[in-house]
Design brief:
- The strands form three sheets. Strands 5, 6, 9, 10, 11, 12, 16, 17 and 18 form a nine-stranded antiparallel β-sheet that branches. A five-stranded antiparallel β-sheet has the order 7-8-13-14-15, covered by helices on one side. Strands 2-1-3-4 form a four-stranded parallel β-sheet, sandwiched between helices.
- The protein folds into two domains: 164 residues, Thermophilic metalloprotease-like, CATH 3.40.1830.10; 201 residues, no CATH class.
- By secondary structure, the chain is α+β, with helices and mostly antiparallel strands.
- 40% of the residues are buried.
């Protein structure tokens, strides 16, 4: 049976997020399991007059793809990667936008790929990745799968309903409610984060502040900026896992000095966690600080796209800064790690220039009340 809410979601993606017009050539990138949404996107694109190009992917095929890279001598694969990049750059000359639909049937699939191969491949593609992100309109979402539901500890039907409730919030109202927070952050110099195992200060002075209300991610709901590169001092203890390359790092803890991550640990594979942070110089500096405000998302489900939007959370991200909130830090890594500060998860506080702004996930200033549950 066709779910008309997918048509509403397709309208949101193509009209509100991407603002497509007649004649626009754009990419729909997803997996076969997302076919119900892709069909809705095609129908809505035809009504607009936009021209879709469909690219389908698969976790197992992605894993096998990396077999052409010798982890011990990845540089030998450079001619092949360069040829691929030449073709892809010509392809993106013509694309004005893209809808990226993540489909996780096994989010540990890439754990079988040597990290050295993945790191080298991502480094070679960094310029193209920056071009796609910084110079093209895009929106990213995850289509619900059985694997996602299992990871979240939910039956599939409940997870599917959760997906749609989180995705189809009133983003125009959210945008209005975010305005006072953006204005406040733009005036702020020093941020202090306090909570169980956490006492960290950093500056966001003169770094642009960006509200996210459905134009880049679905579900959405965050306001982000970036710490001044060398300003972070103290410790942050996260209470959700870091997820990367199909690997999971539980309860990450980072210790900063002059902006640099001097110590990094987690439950389990601390060596693997540190290896990831040693990918390049920028990986041990912060590239993003964001506050989550989507109150339809209340707990971690092990998917960063959702978790970073949790109402009452923040995320503090080692690695590359976004171009629109740039602090000078560049890296192949952008590792969003989330800390939930609601009472149910131990509480916590956010201070701006010595003033308590949020306590236990609830904003205190009257101007920010619209962002509370």
């Amino acid at each position: 049976m066709h779910d008309e809410r997918l048509d509403r979601l397709a309208d949101l993606l193509l009209n509100y997020s991407l603002k497509l017009k007649s004649g626009d050539l754009f990419e729909i990138n997803g997996g076969v399991i997302a076919k119900p949404l892709i069909k809705s996107l095609l129908r809505r694109a035809h009504k607009i007059g936009a021209v879709p190009y469909i690219k389908l992917g698969d976790d197992e095929l992605s894993r096998l793809f990396f077999g052409f890279i010798d982890p011990a001598h990845p540089e030998k694969s450079k001619p092949a990667i360069d040829a691929q990049l030449e073709w892809e750059n010509k392809y993106w000359d013509h694309m004005v936008a893209h809808v990226d639909i993540g489909v996780d049937e096994n989010d540990a699939e890439l754990s079988a790929v040597d990290t050295r191969a993945l790191t080298y491949y991502r480094e070679q593609r960094r310029a193209l990745r920056d071009r796609i992100i910084d110079e093209r309109r895009w929106v990213y979402l995850h289509y619900p799968t059985m694997a996602d539901a299992q990871k979240a500890g939910m039956c599939y039907d409940d997870f599917y309903e959760f997906f749609l409730s989180a995705a189809l919030v009133d983003y125009e109202k959210m945008a209005r409610d975010m305005e006072p927070l953006v204005e406040l952050m733009e005036k702020t110099d020093t941020v202090r984060l306090v909570g169980p195992g956490t006492d960290l200060t950093f500056s966001i002075r003169n770094i642009p502040v960006v509200p996210c209300h459905g134009e880049l991610n679905i579900p959405d709901g965050e306001v982000y900026t970036a710490p001044v590169r060398d300003s972070a001092s103290g410790v942050v203890q996260y209470n959700t896992p870091a997820m990367r390359y199909g690997k999971k790092f539980d309860n990450p803890r980072l210790v900063f000095r002059n902006g640099h991550i001097d110590e990094a640990s987690c439950d389990g594979d601390s060596a693997g966690f540190n290896e990831m942070l040693d990918a390049d110089e920028g990986a041990r500096y912060l590239g993003e600080f964001a506050i989550g405000v989507n109150n339809a998302v209340t707990r971690s489900i092990g998917n960063t796209l959702y978790d970073e939007k949790i109402g009452g959370s923040f995320h503090l991200t080692p690695g590359c800064a976004y171009a629109d909130a740039f602090n000078g830090n560049k890296s192949q890594l952008h590792l969003d790690i989330v800390c939930i500060q609601t009472k149910a998860f131990g509480g916590g506080e956010i201070w701006f220039d010595g003033k308590l702004i949020r306590k236990n996930g609830v904003f205190l200033p009257e101007s920010l009340q619209g962002l509370n549950p």
